[in-house]
Design goal:
Elements: H1 3-6, H2 13-25, H3 35-47, E1 51-55, H4 60-68, E2 76-79, H5 86-93, E3 97-100, H6 112-118, E4 123-126, H7 138-148, E5 151-155, E6 163-164, E7 167-168, E8 175-179, E9 192-196, H8 199-208, H9 226-229, H10 248-259, H11 261-279, E10 285-287, E11 294-295, E12 301-305, H12 307-310, H13 314-323, E13 329-331, H14 340-343, H15 371-376, E14 380-383, H16 390-412
Parallel strand pairs: 2-3, 2-4, 4-5, 5-8
Antiparallel strand pairs: 1-9, 6-7, 6-11, 8-9, 10-12, 12-14, 13-14
Helix pairs in contact: 2-10, 3-10, 4-5, 4-8, 11-16, 13-16
The structure holds pyridoxal-5'-phosphate (PLP).
Length: 413
């Protein structure tokens, strides 16, 4: 089976040629095609940032940002609850406390007013998520950051080339964090990259993600030179670090994807626009609102489904879509704090609940914490839009049109 018949348009032969370069070099550390550097430089160049640090996934990226700025056990980090749990997990990985702020009912992104209400003397950072490809309200969030001296890590895992008034999402906060997991606009199976402009922060991220080697810098810097490593007194680590490196194989595919970023993102936007056309006169499927001046990169096409208006349950409407040839509708993730890990406090040992460090600081994750998110989450329908040709997408758009018409017809009877 050739590559095109498996995933038409997903990865091209160019990726295979980059992979071959890596394999042909046999993974030598000192010699090699410099694939990770090439990927990092290409990505940073496309986003107009000074630094790009390739890492193993889009959760490690956020953990490294938190580590690089010294977020420590007991500190608080504000995150949205409507997102992949990875966002809150990155905070837990650093021993810090995820504090959930509510969302906006129309954009589904974290609400700046709610962020303000959650700030305490322990707050160190905010991780806004650019949900479903739509940038969060970064202008307000950066205002809050300046007023309260808080670090902002943009979780742009689902947002490639999203914009706010001409500025690319991921380049507005202190860090932009991207995922190359298999569902994302760009993928290499699993992978991630952090972009930023500050050399100290960039060096911190790279060292946190690679054992804290003292030779590393934001631009790379390599491992300890062989000559030094041959010395029994050689010093290696001056910073605490994990091993979150991106492999050269991941970087080879990530480079090919980065070179095609406009095509890959453009196709999802084009498909989302076809879906938008179909729901524009429908009063029970309300699409995620893209505010003026914003560009949604449409990781997926999402609507709020108003079952009472349609007089058809969420599940029955989904079935209508399937009956008309629809492929897949995902529900939104359960809110992160409603997962058993938070509700049943299934953390690591006493962390972060009963430990001395957290005495009096542990947050209550009871239902009612984020009422808007709790109301919206069960209504959401995420329509798949990662088709690799418009013909396939047209079948899906048509299935949705027919499902909507069947509801309208039943109501007019
Ligand atoms: C918003 C968001 N943040 C973070 C992640 C985690 O990325 P990764 O799977 O690459 O660790 C994902 C999904 O995978 C995501 O959708």
């Amino acid at each position: 089976m050739d590559i095109k018949s498996r995933h038409p348009g997903r990865v091209t032969e160019k990726a295979m040629s980059y992979l071959k370069e890596v394999v042909d070099y046999g993974f030598g550390q000192s010699k090699g095609p410099g694939m990770r550097d090439r990927f990092e430089q290409a990505f940073a160049k496309r986003f107009g940032t000074e630094f790009g640090i390739g890492l193993c996934n889009g959760t490690a990226t956020m953990h490294c940002c938190l580590g690089a700025v010294g977020v420590k056990p007991g500190d608080e980090v504000i995150v949205p609850p409507l997102t992949a749990a990875a966002t809150a997990f990155a905070v837990l990985h650093q021993g810090a406390i995820p504090v959930f702020a509510d969302i906006d009912p129309d954009t589904f992104n974290i609400c700046p007013k709610s962020i303000r209400e959650r700030i305490t003397p322990l707050t160190k950072a905010i991780i806004p998520v650019h949900l479903y490809g739509l940038p969060a309200d970064m202008e307000e969030i950066m205002k809050i950051s300046r007023e309260h001296n808080l670090i902002v890590i943009e979780d742009s895992a689902e947002c490639f080339l999203g914009e706010i008034n001409g500025k690319l999402a991921g380049t507005i906060g202190h860090f932009g964090s991207f995922s190359f997991q298999s569902s994302k606009h760009l993928t290499c199976g699993d992978g991630g990259i952090v972009i930023c402009n500050d050399p100290t922060l960039a060096t911190g991220v790279r060292k946190f993600g690679c054992f804290g080697y003292h030779t590393l810098t934001g631009k790379g810097g390599g491992v300890i030179p062989k000559k030094q490593r041959c010395d029994p007194g050689a010093v290696r680590h001056d910073f605490m670090g994990w091993n979150y490196r991106m492999s050269a194989l991941q970087a080879a595919v990530a480079l090919e994807q980065t070179e095609r970023i406009d095509e890959l993102v453009g196709l999802r936007i084009q498909i989302a626009e076809m879906f938008l056309e179909v729901v524009k006169d429908c009063n029970f499927l309300i699409p995620q609102k893209t505010p003026p001046g914003y560009k949604n990169s449409y990781w997926t096409f999402v609507c709020k489904y108003e079952a009472e208006v349609a007089s058809v349950s969420w599940k029955d409407f989904r079935q209508k879509f399937y009956d008309n040839g629809g492929d897949l509708v995902y529900a939104a993730w359960r809110l992160s704090y409603n997962e058993p890990i938070f509700q049943e406090r299934r953390f690591l040992g006493d962390f972060p609940v009963d430990s001395e460090i957290y005495k009096g600081k542990y947050k209550d994750y009871s239902p009612g914490l984020c009422p808007v998110a709790e109301k919206i989450q069960p209504k959401l329908m995420q329509f798949k839009n990662n088709y690799y040709n418009l013909e396939e997408a047209r079948v899906q758009v048509e299935a949705l049109r027919k499902a909507i018409e069947s509801v309208k017809a039943a109501k007019s009877r």
